[in-house]
Amino acid sequence: MFQLGIILYDDLLDRDQDESNSNSLPNSEIDFETAFKHPNRDKWSRGFEYMLQIANLSIDEKNKKLIHQAQFNVGKGYFLGFGCKQSDRKAEEYWLKSADNGSEYGNVTAMTYLAFIYSRKGEPEFFDLNKTYFWHNEACGNGSLESQGALGAMYYYGIGCKKNIEAAYECLTNSCERGNVFSMGLLCDYYYRNKFYVKATELSKKVSGLNDVDKISRETNCLRDFICKGIGLACFTLARCYDMGKGIEKDSDQAHYLYKRSFHFDPDLCQLYQNQSTFELI
Questions:
Q1: How far apart are CA 45 and CA 211, in angstroms?
Q2: Is the N or C terminus of the chain more exposed, i.e. has fewer CB atoms within 10 Å?
Q3: How big is the CA angle at 280 (ends 276 and 282), to the nearest 5 degrees?
């Protein structure tokens, strides 16, 4: 039943046909309003129902992992509105079940998603940075690359926890070595602010040249928005190095190009750091 649910929910039966259609969107890029009108919504609904049946089974030692995976899928279905009516509250309910209090049997991705659902300032009903820190910490302890980078960012900026640069550096370097692009971008910023300009330029050159965000997301299982933030921050850091002639020969044209590239990947982050540059906070 689990495999049948996956086949229907992920459109595996029609994957070859879908891939040959250049106008089709991957499920991850379809919002819940589009999903409601999508021709595959009947299959998604059946796949969701199969997942829901498994998610609500009694748990024993043999089926823990399977049921927690089904619970995660149901939560994601509710969050995206795939195969069911969109509901953040239901998504939270099933992700909490799937996370299993952060145990070794819990679904690690559910822990990370819970952290993100509690980090949204625009959703006061859910916004709770203490819960964000807790779930990123639990997910990181269970091997989540995404949460390890996010936890490093929380320590780095003092968000949801006391600012701790040593802990931030440990999280960021470890997750950077594992391929977390967001962590790489933050490390670029760390090196620049601490006047390690050669290290800042070397790492920024590597990260600022990345382009295939979707491929990186598939390979690392990290959210594309945070990958874009990492690339955007690396571009801005390298632009500053060129602009100020720090760690590299001054080049105003290259700096201008990289500022524009940073804005392309993350306009809000670029504006934030530009403001800090203007007021000489960097």
A1: 35
A2: N
A3: 65
Residue 274, both tokens: 């530009």
| Mean local confidence (pLDDT), 224-237 | 98
How big, in percent rounded to 5, are the helix, strand and coil portions of the chain? 70, 0, 30
pLDDT, average across residues 266-272: 96
Evaluate whether 149 touches 171 at the Cβ level (below 8 Å).
Answer: yes
**163-176 per-position pLDDT tens digit:** 999 999 999 999 99
Nearest to 10, CA basis, from 35, 34, 22, 27: 27
Residue 192: partners with Cβ closer than 8 Å, 6 or more residues away: 200, 237, 240, 241, 246, 282
C-beta separation of 209 from 257 below 8 A: no
Reported as a single tens digit per residue, the pLDDT across 30-39 is 444 444 444 4
Residue 156's Cβ-count burial label (10 Å; 0-12, 13-18, 19+) is buried
